[in-house]
Each structure stands twice: as structure tokens, then as C-alpha cells.
């Protein structure tokens, strides 16, 4: 059994990006600039955005953090987005989700310039991804592909089962795993809350990508020997034995499932660190595209 170590791979990617940024600086070129908008004071969102800013510092990117109050109106947020769209210094930016109830998330995502949409959430970018065109792949699915590729996990002709159909992970993964090329060329089954006999389906899978958000949902009896497990789930579970009072748990019963798996991602330390690394990679790609257009 091989652990798909997202922490190690993400650090490798950051080192590679740092090297490229140093070359850009040596040539006197503009370095990538990533911005993030956060509305409100959601604890998890603030932690996540903070780690993005630190990652930018590490690789030599410029970064801008735009904090807006939880009472921000939709119009105010859309004005800020227009400002970032029009700012030639900003190569890419993200609007941290979730947004407060008074703001229409779909309207906000549509307002983001697709050329700066390094999260890959804009319908134009999602559509290009579905058509195998060059575009920004959402950071978490991009990270999963990178893990599979760097560990040489065979995907061609395999049966991949995706659990969860969110627009951020489940649905894009179902498209990407079925595309031509590597990683891809697998036969994909997309399962969700209305799927009947899910154990019957998962027990036939060569690769399982679980993005459900239900702690320890996937049990050992639901998988076959030598299965490849990608656990995207991250849930805080109360635990009085820890200093924080909680522990981070994935969708997979790691202790028991790992005994049957050929490859498996841990939680934490698997898919999570890859998301930020690929966000940086998308920003580097955005910067290179903007330079070519200039």
C-alpha cells in the first residue's frame, strides 16, 4: 500500500513554481499576482485564505487580500469584482465561498473574468474543461490529477467511481477521469445521495474518489482489494482527547480501508495541500497567458 502524500507533492510543486518565478524575476518579467476576496468572518474560510497568502509569499508571488464585511451588499461585491477584472496587475483571483445569504453566488461567479478565474468555477471554463479545451481546471480536481500522475497510478481502462456530484469536485472529476489522455481514459460511474445499492457499485471500482463530506462513510467491506482511494472529505469531528477539541476526518475509514488499498490519500495531508498548490499553478498559467496576449 502506497500513501499518496499530498503534502510532499504540493511542496515539490511549490519548489518548481519558485524556480520559475525566480527565472521571471531574472528576466525582469512581471511576477504572478493572486488576489482573494473574502466576505464575512467564517473561521474555516479565513484559515484557508490565510494559507493561500502564505503560499504566495513562499513561491514569490504578489498577493492581495480583500476583506469585506458580512453585511456587504451584492452590488458592492460586484463592484469590487469589476475592479479586479479591470486591474492589469492582477493575474488571477478567487472569491472565497460560501458567501452570505444576501449575495447570489451564481451571479458573483459569472461576473468573474474567465481569464482570471483561477478557481475554474466560471461556466466558460467549466465548459472548456468538459470539451477537453485548454482552460483552468478547478484546483481540487487538478490536484487529484497531479497526484495520480506523479505516483504513476494507472487509470486507463479502469472503473472509477466518484461519490458526490458537487460542481467543485464530484462533477468535474467525473468528466476529467473519462477524458482522453493520462490521467483519464477510465470508465466513470457518478454516484450521489439518490444512488441505490452504492456498495454494489463501489465494490466493483478500481478507483474511488469520495467527495461526500460524511465522516468514515466508505468502509472496508465496500471496496475490493488493490483499490485506489482518493479521499476528498474534510470534516471536523468533536474529540475531547485533542487540544483543539476536534479532529479532521475524511470520508474513508482509513485504518481498515488502507489494508485493502494499493494507493490511498490520508486526511489530513492528502488532497487538501494539493488544492492550494494547484491554485498557484493556475495563477502562474494565467500570468503566462496574459504576458503572451500583451
From TrEMBL:
Keywords: Amino-acid biosynthesis, Histidine biosynthesis, Hydrolase, Methionine biosynthesis, Multifunctional enzyme, NADP, One-carbon metabolism, Oxidoreductase, Purine biosynthesis. InterPro entries: Aminoacid_DH-like_N_sf (IPR046346), NAD(P)-bd_dom_sf (IPR036291), THF_DH/CycHdrlase (IPR000672), THF_DH/CycHdrlase_cat_dom (IPR020630), THF_DH/CycHdrlase_CS (IPR020867), THF_DH/CycHdrlase_NAD-bd_dom (IPR020631). Its EC number is 1.5.1.5, 3.5.4.9. One of its GO terms (cellular component) is cytosol. Residues 138-290 form the Tetrahydrofolate dehydrogenase/cyclohydrolase NAD(P)-binding domain. It holds the Pfam family THF_DHG_CYH. Pathway: One-carbon metabolism; tetrahydrofolate interconversion. The keyword Oxidoreductase applies. Transmembrane segments: none annotated. The keyword Amino-acid biosynthesis applies. Homodimer. This is Bifunctional protein FolD. The gene is folD.
Amino acid at each position: 500500500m502506497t500513501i499518496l502524500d499530498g503534502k510532499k507533492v504540493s511542496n515539490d510543486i511549490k519548489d518548481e513554481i519558485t524556480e520559475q518565478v525566480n527565472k521571471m524575476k531574472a528576466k525582469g518579467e512581471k511576477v504572478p499576482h493572486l488576489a482573494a476576496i473574502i466576505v464575512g468572518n467564517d473561521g474555516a474560510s479565513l484559515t484557508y485564505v490565510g494559507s493561500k497568502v502564505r503560499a504566495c509569499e513562499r513561491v514569490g508571488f504578489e498577493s492581495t487580500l480583500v476583506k469585506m464585511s458580512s453585511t456587504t451588499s451584492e452590488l458592492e461585491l460586484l463592484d469590487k469584482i469589476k475592479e479586479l477584472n479591470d486591474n492589469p496587475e492582477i493575474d488571477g483571483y478567487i472569491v472565497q465561498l460560501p458567501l452570505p445569504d444576501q449575495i447570489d453566488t451564481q451571479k458573483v461567479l459569472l461576473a468573474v473574468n474567465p481569464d482570471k478565474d483561477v478557481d475554474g468555477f466560471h461556466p466558460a471554463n467549466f465548459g472548456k474543461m468538459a470539451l477537453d479545451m485548454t482552460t483552468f481546471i478547478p484546483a481540487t480536481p487538478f490536484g487529484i490529477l497531479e497526484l495520480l500522475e506523479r505516483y504513476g497510478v494507472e487509470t486507463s481502462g479502469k472503473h472509477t467511481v466518484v461519490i458526490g456530484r458537487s460542481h467543485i469536485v464530484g462533477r468535474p472529476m467525473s468528466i476529467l477521469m473519462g477524458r482522453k489522455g493520462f490521467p483519464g481514459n477510465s470508465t466513470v460511474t457518478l454516484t450521489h445521495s439518490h444512488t441505490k445499492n452504492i456498495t454494489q457499485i463501489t465494490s466493483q471500482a478500481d478507483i474511488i474518489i469520495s467527495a461526500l463530506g460524511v465522516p468514515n462513510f466508505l468502509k472496508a467491506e465496500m471496496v475490493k482489494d488493490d483499490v485506489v482511494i482518493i479521499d476528498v472529505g474534510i470534516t471536523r469531528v468533536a474529540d475531547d482527547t485533542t487540544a483543539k477539541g476536534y479532529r479532521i476526518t475524511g470520508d474513508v475509514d482509513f485504518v481498515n480501508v488502507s489494508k485493502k488499498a494499493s494507493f490511498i490519500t490520508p486526511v489530513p495531508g492528502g488532497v487538501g495541500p494539493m488544492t492550494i498548490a494547484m491554485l498557484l499553478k493556475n495563477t502562474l498559467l494565467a500570468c503566462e497567458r496574459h504576458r503572451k496576449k500583451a
